[in-house]
Amino acid sequence: MTRSEHVRALLEEYARQRAADEADLEARVAEACAREPRIAQLRSESAELALSAMRSILTQQSLEQRTALASNMKRQGQGINAKIRELLHGAGLPEDQLEPRYRCDKCRDTGYVGDAPARFCDCFEARLKLRQYEDGSMAGTDEQNFERFDADRIPEENGQREQMILTRKMCEEYADRFPQTDYRNLLLTGAGGLGKTFLLNSIFERVISRGGAAVRITAFRMFEAMRQRHMGSDEKLDGFSALIEAPLLLIDDLGTEPMMRNITVEYLFTLLNERIAAKRHTVIATNLTPVQIKERYGERVASRLLDRSACRAVQLKGKDLRSL
Length: 324
Ligand SMILES: [Zn+2]
Fold this sequence. Notes:
Blueprint: H1 3-35, H2 37-59, H3 63-90, E1 112-113, E2 119-120, H4 122-133, H5 160-177, E3 185-189, H6 196-209, E4 214-218, H7 219-230, H8 239-245, E5 248-254, H9 264-277, E6 281-286, H10 290-305, E7 311-315
Parallel strand pairs: 3-6, 3-7, 4-5, 5-6
Antiparallel strand pairs: 1-2
Zinc ion binds next to helix 4.
């Protein structure tokens, strides 16, 4: 995808986010009015007040009269708002119950800030950078997501289907709760073709569609970012920083990246270590077994990848689904 294609796709994502913001606000207004019908009454009073004040302001000739009307309307409006706040409080609802809640307050989820010429908001630029870093070979989010999960395709023998259903549920909960997950990190292991990539992509799709910031990357692309950093690229702009900083990082196929002296193990350690220190979430899919992880990356990296206090590890077993 070119930059402009990414921009277009991201603007669509922002439009979906705004629609979600609106639906969320409507639901909260409805909830408040259901709990406390006087709020609905006050809200329509407030709307009527504004409308009639507007009309009378338009019919007044002198500036003094218009100013007086406007400040009178403002005072009455504030009175109504104070009553609404009181009722919200009495109903056990937060003060901002009837206000829009944005993912980004700076741009109100439009992606733009400033007057003409508007520019992209920092949140937009950051997301754009993350998107561009994605590997073009990764599956589309419309192809691989939890809704597309088809348990019937998985053999029942040896508990393979049951295990996959449980793992899917665990992954979906992880994505739905993010960032309030039970375990901060997930490690999906097992031979090729058992559905690890599908689960990883499904988590990514769900978190992104909930408005979260996630980066997914193949281990090969991750290695490229490491190599660039090693060769002295600009730290502020390179992909390696994006990998360290992503609130959720999903690495697919760990173990398929080249092993290069002074790079692979060292930078993977830095990446994991910095992410753990900053309490960021990481999901990794790999064909390597825990023993192979230790052999390939050494004790220091393995202890971070397999840390049981922060990581939930799942080893998938069974037949290769691609060959069925
Ligand atoms: Zn923004």
